[in-house]
Design brief:
The protein is an alpha+beta fold. It contains twelve helices and 14 strands. The model has no long low-confidence stretch (mean pLDDT about 95).
Length: about 400
C-alpha cells in the first residue's frame, strides 16, 4: 500500500550522537530537542504555523516530561501544536513515525512534526513509595542502569538475549567481530569529504548549548565518542558473560541525542520539500515479538510484515538499515533473509554511532532516505529490535531527483 503521508525531502534532521556522559550529558533531552527543532525549522524556512500536529517519543524520562509534546512544541515556538508522547524503547522512532502517518491518513492533520530524543547520561533515580512496606519504605530504580540489566519477565539482562540467539544459531565471536569491522568501514564513508554524508541532515560542526540554552559552551565536529577497532584489538577482548560470545567490542554504546522528521499530505509535502521533484513515500509498517529472551530474532518478522503490507519482497529493496545493538543481529538477519552483510547499513548504523533508544530509529530512517536519494531513488527498509523482544520496521520509497 501507499500511505497518504509523505516526508518532504530534506525536512528532517539529527544531532550528532554523543557517547553517554559526554557533550550532551547535562542537557534535558526534551528541552534540547526543542532547542534543535527551533533552529532546524528556521534553517529550512518552515514557518511554525504550518504544523497542526506533533508526536514526541523518548524512553528515558526527564524533568517535566509529563508535559510531553505540548511542552516541546511550546519551547520550539509551535505553541498551538498538540499531540501524544510515546515510548516503545528502541522501536520508538518507527512508532512515532507511524503515529504521525496515521494522523494524516485519517484526515486529522496535514503537517506533523515527529520528534524523538533521549539522554542515557545521568538517568533518573526513582523512588516508589509504599506505605505498607517495612517501616513505610518503598522501592527504588535507576531507570537506565536497572533496565539495561534486567528484563523483569526473565529476569535477565539484554545481553543475555544476544547470547541465547548466538547459541541457538551458532554465531561465534569471530563472526561478530568481522561485522563490527565492516560496519565501522561503512561508517567511515559517512565521514569522508569532511562528513559530507552527515551534513546532508546534520548541522556540523554542532554547537553544544549550556543547560539554560543561553550560550554555546563548545562544538563537536560529528558524532562523539566513536571507538574504531582493529582485528587485533577485538581478538584480545573476552566475552562479557562467562562462556558467552558477545564482547564489549561486539555491541553498541549508550548515547545521547535527538532527531526529527516532518510528515505532510502530498500537497503540503511538495510545498515544504527542499527539492519538490523528490518524493519520499511510505509503503508499509510491521511489528513483531520474538520468544522471551530472544530479542535479536524480532527484526526479521517485523521486516517481513512491513514488506507484506508494501506488497514487496526483500529482494526489491535497494537499501537496508538495521538497528544492531549487537553485531550478531545482522548476522542472523543476513542468514535468515539471504541479504548479504555488505548490502546492509551503508554509511553506518547504531552499532557504531550509538544507542540513545528513542532517536536511534529516526536517524536510521533519515540515513536510509539520504542513501536512496544519492542513488537517484529506490526502495528502502529499516528494521530493528527493542526491549521486550519486540521490533518495528518500515518500508519507504524515494523517487525523482
Amino acid at each position: 500500500m501507499t500511505y497518504k503521508a509523505e516526508i518532504p525531502y530534506g525536512c528532517y534532521w539529527s544531532t550528532p550522537f554523543a557517547r553517554w556522559q559526554g557533550a550532551f550529558a547535562n542537557l534535558n533531552s526534551v528541552e534540547f530537542a526543542a532547542h534543535v527543532a527551533k533552529k532546524e525549522l528556521a534553517r529550512r524556512s518552515i514557518p511554525p504555523g504550518v504544523f497542526d500536529h506533533g508526536v514526541l517519543g523518548f524512553s528515558v524520562p526527564q524533568k517535566h516530561s509529563f508535559y510531553g509534546l505540548p511542552w516541546l512544541t511550546g519551547l520550539a515556538g509551535l505553541g498551538k501544536v498538540a499531540g501524544p508522547t510515546l515510548m516503545q524503547a528502541c522501536a520508538t522512532g518507527v512508532r512515532v513515525l507511524l503515529a504521525g502517518v496515521q494522523e494524516i491518513e485519517t484526515g486529522l492533520s496535514n503537517v506533523s512534526l515527529t520528534v524523538t530524543c533521549d539522554r542515557t547520561s545521568n538517568g533518573p533515580h526513582l523512588y516508589y513509595p509504599n506505605p505498607r512496606g517495612p517501616g513505610g519504605t518503598g522501592a527504588h530504580e535507576d531507570w537506565v542502569m536497572d533496565n539495561f540489566s534486567c528484563d523483569p519477565l526473565g529476569p535477565h539482562a539484554m545481553i543475555k538475549t544476544a547470547e541465547n540467539v548466538a547459541k541457538k544459531h551458532g554465531i561465534g565471536t569471530a563472526a561478530q567481530h568481522e561485522v563490527v569491522l565492516r560496519r565501522e568501514a561503512q561508517y567511515r564513508d559517512a565521514l569522508a569529504s569532511d562528513s559530507a554524508f552527515h551534513k546532508r541532515f546534520m548541522t556540523l560542526p554542532f554547537e553544544v548549548p549550556d543547560p539554560a540554552y543561553r550560550k554555546t559552551v563548545g562544538t563537536i565536529p560529528d558524532d562523539e565518542g566513536i571507538n574504531f577497532s582493529t582485528a587485533e584489538k577485538l581478538a584480545k577482548l573476552k566475552p562479557v558473560l562467562e562462556g558467552g560470545t558477545v564482547t564489549y567490542g561486539g555491541q553498541t554504546h549508550p548515547a545521547d541525542g535527538n532527531a526529527a522528521i516532518v510528515l505532510a499530505s502530498p500537497e503540503r509535502a511538495k510545498e515544504l520539500s527542499r527539492d519538490p521533484k523528490i518524493r519520499v513515500r511510505l509503503h508499509g509498517f510491521g511489528q513483531s515479538r520474538a520468544d522471551l529472551a530472544y530479542m535479536p530474532e524480532a527484526p526479521v518478522p517485523a521486516a517481513q510484515r512491513a514488506l507484506a503490507q508494501a506488497g514487496m519482497t526483500i529482494a526489491q529493496m535497494d537499501a537496508i538499515k538495521t538497528h544492531n545493538p549487537f553485531a550478531l543481529n545482522d548476522i542472523l538477519f543476513s542468514r535468515t533473509t539471504g541479504v548479504a552483510l555488505e548490502r546492509m547499513n551503508n554509511y553506518g548504523s547504531s552499532l557504531v554511532w550509538g544507542h540513545p533508544q528513542g532517536p536511534m530509529g529516526t536517524r536510521a530512517i533519515i540515513e536510509l532516505i539520504e542513501e536512496l536519494a544519492q542513488r537517484g531513488g529506490g526502495y528502502g527498509l529499516f528494521t530493528g529490535c527493542a526491549a521486550g523482544d519486540s521490533a518495528m520496521a518500515v518500508v519507504l520509497q524515494v523517487s525523482g531527483g
